[in-house]
Amino acid sequence: MASGDMQMLEGTIAWVNAAVAQLGIRDDMRDVIVEPWRELTVSIPVQMDNGTVRVFHGYRSQHNAARGPFKGGIRFHLAVDQSHTRALGMLMTFKSALVNIPFGGAKGGIQVDPRALSERELIELTRRYTRGINHVLGVSRDIPAPDLGTNSQTMAWIMDEYSALHGYTPGIVTGKPVELGGSEGRSESPGRGAAIVSRLAALDRGIGGESPSIIVQGYGQVGSSAARKFVEDGARVVAVSDVSGGLYNPKGVDIAALDKLLAEGGKFSDFKGEEKVSNDELLCLEADVLVPAAIEDVLTSDNAPNIKVKMVVEGANQPTTTAADAILTERGIPVVPDILANAGGVVVSYFEWAQNIQQFKWKLDRVYAELTSIMETAYRATQEYAMANSVTLRSAAYTLAIQRLHRAIELRGFLK
Ligand code: GLU
What we know:
Distance between the termini: 43 Å
Bound molecules: glutamic acid
Number of strands: 12
Helix content: 40-55%
CATH class of the domain at 189-341: Alpha Beta
CATH topology of the domain at 189-341: Rossmann fold
Radius of gyration: 20 Å
Largest sheet: 7 strands, mixed
């Protein structure tokens, strides 16, 4: 990260402070909004395949449950630590509030590179972590989901371990395999939501016409599902990347062919025909929309002056530092913030949770129709607030979310 760019937690708090000031909320209430309600740190000893024991560090930060149970993903990544988890938990509270679903926010994770572990080691790590935090979880208490480095298989292991302790409980996690009570459409939902709001924001700003050109940085669950939805809607995905590097084709990368190659175990570098670019080069290519969909702090004060797109849509959680955000705003490049753009995942998590509780299964077209409706409503509210108050979309999103959170705190009478 460039010097001058704040750490993730400081950055999130800076945006909260601005929204609190905009709303005229009392200073002492600011702390109630910022501080996590409960945080748990666990050490997780795992016997590795070579017979040695390694102790991993796991976290669950339960930020706020004033509007409903704590909700948020579990991340397996080397950058996971307490402050990182806390910032991500806070973002979840605002995300749920902005799209107006009945959840609070939380985040958890383990400091680990999951690709360096065998499947047996990973199952053991996941089970022990679940045992370590099981007493603060619950279907109406705290419901985890996948995040970076975890997937539906990880959720199945968590569900199994939690069910061994508490009895069969499919609603304890979302993002499960469909065969185990997962929702249709959950894996496509984060990117789908991003593409839906991107389209609306581009139309409102006259960006790209019928077939806008899109750069997608990161090709995990968010990036790949966004690319597929953009193509479905007639956009041209001109550049995509994963950790190993990127592909560029101004006429549009063949996303279906890339997905086929990856499904067959191929790598980005095996993809023939498209120009190869580095991740850094990809961020500064010319196009209508850039979707950073990998990890935080990708747009910094170093590269923000060189970004050539007309709009940024944050597929990842906090990919733009506060300093980069100020530069983009100054340059007149709108940023559709993460708490709106990547809320599709938690929205379909909400549908999955509701289906599990009711023991009733929705069809895919219902999931997609309800997702579209919630994303459109949240986008419209954010856009209208931004226009009416001459503020950025991020400021509008934080302000609306914090207004709802503040109201819930007042109504519940916590502070009477
Ligand atoms: N990890 C995802 C996010 O950051 C999904 C969270 C959830 O579905 O609970 O939004």
